[in-house]
Known about the structure:
Elements: H1 10-14, H2 23-40, H3 54-60, H4 65-78, H5 82-98, H6 106-123
Amino acid sequence: xxxxxxxxxxxxxxxxxxxxxxxxxxxxxxxxxxxxxxxxxxxxxxxxxxxxxxxxxxxxxxxxxxxxxxxxxxxxxxxxxxxxxxxxxxxxxxxxxxxxxxxxxxxxxxxxxxxxxxxxxxxx
Length: 124
């Protein structure tokens, strides 16, 4: 997965004012998401969304009609493979876990598609 980030102004970097999210806050969110995944997979050999097999993806990555429409459109327009389909769902599931959401939200799918699109730009 690749993430495109904007350049940071030198004055922001050298300023004493910290405008970003604190590392501890991010750490807490990640620990909570990992806890969700550990609980989700407690009866299985894997413990993370990234290690889900196809059957687990179908079970744990249910989409609303809106989210499914976004994914279908991306699959058709960007010619993503079946492997890319499952990887998008895994990333979207992780994004929902990080947000503490039970279900994958349309924005989770859009963000996951965006990451996959960056992979295509960098490696094609």
